[in-house]
Design brief:
alpha/beta; five-stranded parallel sheet; 11% strand
Amino acid sequence: MAKDPGSVSSLGAKIYDAELFRLQAELVKVQEWVKAEGQRVVVVFEGRDAAGKGGTIKRITEYLSPRNVRIAALPTPTERERTQWYFQRYVEHLPAAGEITLFDRSWYNRAGVERVMGFCTPYEYRRFLHQCPIFERLLVEDGILLRKYWFSVSDSEQQRRFTSRLRDPMRQWKLSTMDLESITRWEDYSRAKDEMMVHTDIPEAPWYVVESDSKKRARLNMMAHLLSTIPYTEVPSTVLRMPDRPEPKGYERPPREQTTYVPDHAATLG
């Protein structure tokens, strides 16, 4: 698959850093608006392995409060969860008023890896395609702001990223045998994605595709688009004032030898 040169042209570091910081500052405003207005926001991140979802989520949340913005990255379902209604374990992670939930993969696992790898039955798959639009309409009707992003990466770029991770001991944990097997099932995943889009790209919760052969461009494009879809306004911040430190009233710190301190490792450097 050929790359689109326009999607991978490099951004200058200064331009990228400046725009990233500007978008992150706007996301802080979104967080404060969500809190002030009692809004609920759900953002779904989907795409092939190594498509850049995790890096984008990391930049989105860098300056946001974990009390209000949560990342839901669910592990393999337990035996008990396998007997529940499929959407049940995802419902537990939906936001309350004043919260944002970012799904690093979501209920769409059933339409992707479960479908391709045979982890669900054909009946379970068809039932998902029927129920998913209904489920999402219910979320939107209840007032949740639902946004869905598909990160699209070319086969050659995915393989390059896999190879880079294999050679990097600090990032090998990002790879699994399932990830590597996806290389041999590229067309199967493509067909599954296309069918998923046909059934779940609904007016109430459309899919937005992010070209992600260039991670930097993908991050900026996705963040800018998300901001454009949320009707937030800047909430006036509370004026804070540093209080005067009171005069000492006779407190004495216990002797240092009575406390166990962390060794000064930094002093051994250089």
